[in-house]
Amino acid sequence: MSDTKPATVNRLSARYESLVLAGHSMGGLLLINAAVKHPDKVKAVIALSLPLRLKLTARAVQNRLLLLKPPKENENAELRAARELCGVSGISALSAPRLLAGSLELLKLIRAAKKRLRLLKRPLIAINSKGDEIVSLGSLELAEREAGEFKALVLEHSSHFCFPKEDLRLAAQEINVCLARKEP
Hints:
Strand order of the largest sheet: 1-2-3-4
Order of helices and strands: HEHEHHHEHEH
Shape: globular
Helix content: 40-55%
Distance between the termini: 32 Å
Oligomer: single chain
Strand content: 5-15%
């Protein structure tokens, strides 16, 4: 999990002229590393909820504790999205300590991505949320300082996992601009 497999990038670049890599959270970190390793094959990296800097909020802790319980029919959209997107189904209070390994892997990936930002030769588009309960907007400041070509979009109504339609439209517009851009 600590790196994107070169075989995947090689396989995809054999089929397509150039690749735009897109990932959410930890996926964005993995893709920064892949783009540094394969600059000739990658056109851009789009990272949603890019976690270069983390924050601990009461809402994040509360949501993680609620995710230990079985889902409820009337559960809020943020919890439903977290269940669907971060693979927490089947986690119980007894099995929760297994999540520690994933957390340690995330910290390792953050350190690696921070170091590689200066080496990134392709545009990085980061789409982060003002209301993210896990990722600090300081991630965007760090990326702007360290990455060569960088564009940030801050979504007003989203959280780490939940993206309302109005924010999805804005993110889609930014992604379409990136896709339509001609390579230098």
